[in-house]
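re: ur question from yesterday

yeah so i grabbed the chain u mentioned. its 380 aa long if i counted rite. heres the sequnce exactly as i have it in my notes:
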Amino acid sequence: MNDRAALDLLVSQGPLTRTQIGALTGLSKPTASQLLARLEAAGLVRTTGNVTGRPGPNAQLYEINPTAAHIAALAVDQLGITAAVADITGRVLGEERVGTDAVDEAAPNRTAQLVARAVDGALAKAGLGREDLHGAVIGTPGALDPRTGRLRYAPHLPDWHSRALKEELADVLGTPITIENDVNLAAVAEQQDGAAQDFDDFVLVWADEGVGAAIVLGGRLLRGATGGAGEIGYMPLPGAPLARGGDHSAAQPDAGGGFQRLVGSPSVIALAREYGAAGTRTVQEALDRADVRAEVARRLATGLAAVVAVVDPRLVVLSGEVPQAGGEALRALVEEEFTGLALPRPELRLSDIGGNPILIGALQTALTDARNAVFDTTTG
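ran it thru and got these structure tokens back, copy pasting raw so excuse formatting
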């Protein structure tokens, strides 16, 4: 317990002296010295200079040894895969983007090849090889059904539906693999470093090419019996066609159901064109129009009311391309439209994560897993 407490302090607060570690953990100087010697011998910490400019002998600074473990994180979408490699401190050492056209559609094990290319590219930029990886977390639309091992709720990723997908990817990378829903990973990022910090009960609503939600209750992600908790893109709402069998059809990538057909990125662009802006090509252009912004806010509020009536969270975080393009003006309109639609009135915030929240959440999840394993000094 003392070892883990000291390691967590070094992760969160950076280089510390023996005296500082002792004070923060409540350990005596001799015990803190023994602890640091043990961790240094295990290759988990290293010295990194001295504290100068103070009376008395210079005190040595200790930090986490960044080479103790390396992890990979991946974010998957319809157009390709983004991979990042980081050391145990969380410092990203290399990143690579691979498009789906990098491997021929008819190639055997195409998904594994794409994943391998993305990870190998990131490893090469980091000056590492596959043998250096301790684990990997992959964020993908849909979710693995724990009963069958198959990816569900992602018909637009037809090459990802193998029953042995997780094992196939672990074999090609030579490291343990975790496959997680992409919106759940965005919620992890938001809870650790974003708008949902200090919230144990919140919903993150993702409106992008696809639409989904991550539901966190009591600090834990709600997954559901088939991994489909939060697949609100399929939620039937007035004014949109129903998704009948959309989970099994790859022919209609937008067959996400009512809510997705109302607030997904393609629908927002189509709405602007319906309103007379025939040349609209981006979500940003569409939401720059006040009439489109008002209608999208009404649609978002209607869907949110259904979610809030069931879950009753303290906070709703809006994330993805649509909320980011609409910004505070859209958020304020959603809040206004939401009045009276549901009895619970959660706080409504925009995501404030910089960069790709799915990739960031995958990195954070992989780091947590790696630290739990590598920082366990009771084995070995």
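noticed a couple things. Residues 208 and 321 are 5 Å apart (CA to CA). also The longest helix spans residues 290-311.
anyway ttyl
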